[in-house]
Specification:
Layout: E1 11-13, E2 21-23, E3 27-30, E4 35-38, E5 50-52, E6 77-79, E7 84-87, E8 96-97, E9 103-105, E10 109-114, H1 122-130, H2 132-141, H3 152-156, E11 159-162, H4 165-210, E12 218-220, E13 228-230, E14 234-237, E15 242-246, E16 262-265, E17 278-279, E18 285-286, H5 288-293, E19 304-307, E20 319-321, E21 326-327, E22 331-336, H6 341-350, H7 367-371, E23 374-377, H8 380-393, H9 395-423, H10 430-435, H11 479-482
Parallel strand pairs: 5-9, 16-21, 17-20
Antiparallel strand pairs: 1-2, 3-11, 4-10, 6-9, 7-8, 7-10, 12-13, 14-23, 15-22, 16-18, 19-20, 19-22
Length: 483
């Protein structure tokens, strides 16, 4: 059990294998007796109404990211405030959200609405459907070869725990409170990561633009961001030392497969644990035949990839492919014809590609624009010395960043487990929920942005980050934290 919380006084067998025992007074009934599966198809374009696709919902948190407007889609569904949207495709089952206003979503969502005077409130339903045990049991019923999906027959027939309405309110109150504290903690750690990254970037920028010899003779580069550079360095467009190519479209129906030989990376894969520098893990693969059918170019190992569109472009992420791979059309690949790979990665990390973005609501860059970016390129042996120097200078920063990143991952794992144990009745939160204030002095939810590895939302902070020596993760369920 999670520290600080206790089980209920008495339990009964639920009769449901995945659920096990539940508090003796809780009911267990099929989901379709509690909610309605809404299929309200819009009859035309709804101007000014938010349109939600799978990519707009953050898995496990339900945070809505950059909803847009969409032209009329005969397969779309209309939803109203407090409807619960539940992704039905296997890779996206954890995309569960409860919008606070009306809108339109893609057909890959179930739109679930609590029945009037029904036994389940929408806020509890959201937490319940996002819990890991429910996701796992729905996943086990998904069907289809190319893109397994859940059916309403299986989801609606799922037996779920149903506490009293009063207790559902207490559970939601407690989980929302703890979730706010976890988000606040994660945000503070992300700010520290941002400061550490600034320190690291300052070391890299100085080495990549001036080299290691403080007494070297300099020459004007003719480039504003470079300034003066060592006179023996070559100043040239990137296209003289590297070639660039954009990725290919990756249909949702092809995603989620892990049994083929060629990784197919998306921007989100850059945030997977273990992919901080080298792309070691992927969430989707394709076969050589599928890559040819999709006209997806197979990039060689040691290609440096980076986002080329949207907010991800501004995050300055750069990663190295460890094996031949495909990338989707939100990414671009760079292959250097010569040079030290670590130095070339540092060089690209110094380039602010966001300043090249085309004006408009969605920032984007093209291959032609990147090819023309001017750089200063030292001899290869000097590149290796610079890369080794930077690696040594930033080793402590890298270790500290890794420790903090692991802390954040543990907190997210903790939150997932806590939600599961509370909504299934394994832990009793009624007493702690009763102690919470009706109007807690908390930040606005919109200020707590979590995007693993994305620190672009963090405000500029003056000063130098203090490198932590270890963990120290607080327990948000501790009674002392509730007050």
């Amino acid at each position: 059990m999670i520290s600080g919380l206790k089980p209920y006084p008495a339990y009964k067998d639920s009769g449901v294998e995945w659920l096990g025992k539940v508090p003796e007074y809780w009911r267990v009934q099929r989901l379709k007796t509690c909610v309605e599966n809404v299929n309200d198809v819009p009859t035309g374009v709804s101007h000014g109404v938010a349109h939600l696709a799978l990519e707009h919902i953050e898995s496990w948190t339900g945070r809505i990211v950059s909803p847009g407007e969409s032209p009329f889609d005969s397969q779309a569904k209309r939803f109203v405030a407090n409807d619960v949207l539940f992704g039905k495709l296997r890779p996206y089952l954890a995309k569960v959200t409860r919008p606070q206003s009306e809108g339109v979503c893609v057909s890959e969502f179930f739109v679930l609405r609590s029945l009037k005077q029904g036994p389940i409130c929408s806020s509890y339903l959201e937490h319940l459907l996002r819990s890991k045990p429910v996701i796992e049991v729905v996943d086990s019923t998904a069907f289809g070869v190319r893109m397994p999906r859940a059916s309403w027959q299986s989801v609606g027939g799922l037996f779920v725990p149903v506490p009293t309405r009063e207790e559902q309110t207490a559970i939601v109150r407690y989980l929302d409170h703890v979730d706010r504290r976890i988000r606040r903690y994660i945000r503070s750690r992300q700010k520290l990561i941002s400061l550490l990254n600034e320190q690291k970037q300052a070391i890299i920028n100085k080495a990549v633009t001036r080299g290691l010899n403080p007494d070297v003779r300099l020459k004007p580069s003719g480039v504003d961001w470079l300034g003066d550079v060592p006179e023996h360095w070559q100043v040239c467009p990137l296209k003289h030392v590297a070639w660039f190519k954009s990725g290919a479209g990756f249909p949702v129906s092809e995603q989620g497969r892990e049994e083929f030989s060629i990784p197919f990376y998306r921007v989100s894969d850059m945030n997977l644990p273990g992919n901080e520098k080298m792309m070691n893990h992927c969430s989707s693969t394709v076969s050589p035949d599928t890559a040819r059918r999709l006209r997806a170019f197979v990039f060689p190992a040691n290609t440096i990839i980076f986002p080329k569109v949207g907010g991800a472009l501004l995050t300055n992420k750069r990663r190295i492919l460890t094996r031949p791979s495909c990338i989707d059309n939100n990414l671009m690949g760079c292959v250097f014809r010569c040079g030290d790979l670590d130095y070339c990665l540092m060089l690209l990390e110094c380039l602010d590609l966001g300043r090249l973005a085309k004006p408009g609501p969605v920032p984007a860059i093209s291959e032609g624009e990147v090819r023309q970016v001017p750089i200063a390129f030292p001899p290869i042996d000097e590149q290796s010395r610079i890369a080794a120097y930077v690696t040594e200078r930033t080793e402590a920063i890298e270790k500290a960043t890794k420790v903090i990143t692991e802390e954040i991952a543990l907190m997210r794992e903790y939150r997932t487990r806590l939600i599961s144990d509370v909504v299934t009745g394994k832990l009793d939160v009624r007493a702690l929920a009763a102690q919470l204030c009706d109007n807690p002095d908390e930040q606005d939810e919109s200020d707590w942005i979590e995007d693993a590895g994305d620190d672009s939302h963090v405000n500029e902070t003056e000063g130098t980050a203090e490198i932590p020596e270890g963990g120290g993760v607080p327990n948000p369920t501790d009674p002392a934290c509730v007050q």
